[in-house]
Structure formats: C-alpha cells, structure tokens
C-alpha cells in the first residue's frame, strides 16, 4: 500500500510538472508532447485504481480475519459452555453426595451420642450434635476457602464461609477422630 501511495505521489508530482510545462508551452506558443501528458494521466489513474483495489483487498482480508476470529470465538464459547455445564453437573452430583454423606454422618453421630450417654450415664462432649455440626461446618469452610481467595473470598453468591475458619486441615475424618478420641476411649472402657 505504501509503495502505491509513493508511486501516486510521484505520478501526481510528474503530472503537475507536465501541466506547468503544457501551460508554459501554450503561453510561449511552443510544441508540447500531449502523448507524454496523456500517458502520465493514464498512469496516475491506473495507480489510483490499483490503490482502490488494494484498499478493497485489505478490507476484504480484514473482514475475513474478523470472521475467522468470530468463528473461533463462537467455537470457544460452545466448548466453554460444554465445559461449564459438565462442571455444574459434576458439582451438583458432588453436592448431593456431600449432603447425603453429611446426613449419614449426623445420624451416626446422634446414635453414637445416645449410645455413649446410655453406657456412661453422661453426654459425650465431642459427640453432642451442635458441637459435631459446628466442626463439620468448619471442615467444609476450610475446604471452601480453596474455591476463592482475595477480596471476594469467603463467599459464593448467597453462601458465606469464614475467610479464616478455626480448623484448617486436609482430612476431616482424621481431625474428627482426634477430637472424639477421649470420649470414645472413656465409653469403651466403661464397665
């Protein structure tokens, strides 16, 4: 494009010079080569046509590039939506499994609490339902921290969790076993 622009500028300068030469020839009643002038005009016209074609080709290529980019983005959108929906389905299944497991753990904890109370005649602090649910919530909160850090950490829409929960561990069952170890030992050795 620049080469054509430079050629057009040179051709215009040549044509301007030929006009001046033609004007001087008319004033001086001298001969003037009209063919040279006509050729210069034709060359300038051809260069301007070439410039127009080059601009059109450039726009066409840019439009093709934009279309390819839009097509690639549409494909990316479709792929990402499939991934998003698959992850949502996976999360839904995991949450349903979590809820089911938490219900089973809560029921088992309640039965343990009752059995320990029956055998010892007193409640087992570690197995008291509220204490157990509080621990479960801190386990969950500690893992939910991994979801998001930063200024929006501690929150997923309407669900909030402490940014720094009191318990920060990796294996819930190991932590839980440590917490209730004394209560279990007391209940199992009771005669």
Count of runs of 4 or more consecutive helical residues:
4
Give the topology string: H per helix, E per strand: HHHEEH
* Oligomerization category of the chains in this entry: single chain
User: What general form does the structure show?
Assistant: rod-shaped
Major β-sheet, in short?
Answer: 2 strands, antiparallel
Q: Which terms summarize this structure?
A:
191 residues, mainly alpha, 4 helices
Summarize the helices and strands and which ones pair or pack.
Blueprint: H1 2-28, H2 34-120, H3 129-144, E1 155-156, E2 159-160, H4 172-189
Antiparallel strand pairs: 1-2
Helix pairs in contact: 1-2, 2-3, 2-4
Description of the molecule:
The chain has 191 residues and is mainly alpha-helical. The chain has a domain of 89 residues. It has four helices and two strands. Strands 1-2 form a two-stranded antiparallel sheet. A hairpin with a 2-residue loop joins β1 and β2. The longest helix is centred in the middle third of the chain and has 87 residues. The radius of gyration is 42 Å and the shape is rod-shaped. The model has no long low-confidence stretch (mean pLDDT 89).
In summary, what is this structure?
The chain has 191 residues and is mostly helical. It has a domain at 1-89.
């Amino acid at each position: 494009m620049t080469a054509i622009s430079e050629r057009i500028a040179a051709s215009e300068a040549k044509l301007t010079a030929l006009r001046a030469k033609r004007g001087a020839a008319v004033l001086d009643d001298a001969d003037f080569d009209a063919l040279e002038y006509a050729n210069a005009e034709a060359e300038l016209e051809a260069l301007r046509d070439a410039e127009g074609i080059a601009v059109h080709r450039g726009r066409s290529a840019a439009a093709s590039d934009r279309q390819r980019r839009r097509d690639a983005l549409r494909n990316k959108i479709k792929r990402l939506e499939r991934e998003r929906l698959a992850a949502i389905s996976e999360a839904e299944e995991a949450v349903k499994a979590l809820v089911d497991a938490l219900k089973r753990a809560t029921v088992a904890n309640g039965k343990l609490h009752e059995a320990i109370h029956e055998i010892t005649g007193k409640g087992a602090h570690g197995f008291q339902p509220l204490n157990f649910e509080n621990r479960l919530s801190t386990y969950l909160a500690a893992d939910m921290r991994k979801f998001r850090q930063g200024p929006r950490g501690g929150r997923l829409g309407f669900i909030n969790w402490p940014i720094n929960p009191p318990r920060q561990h990796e294996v819930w069952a190991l932590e839980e076993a440590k917490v209730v170890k004394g209560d279990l030992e007391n209940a199992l050795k009771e005669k």
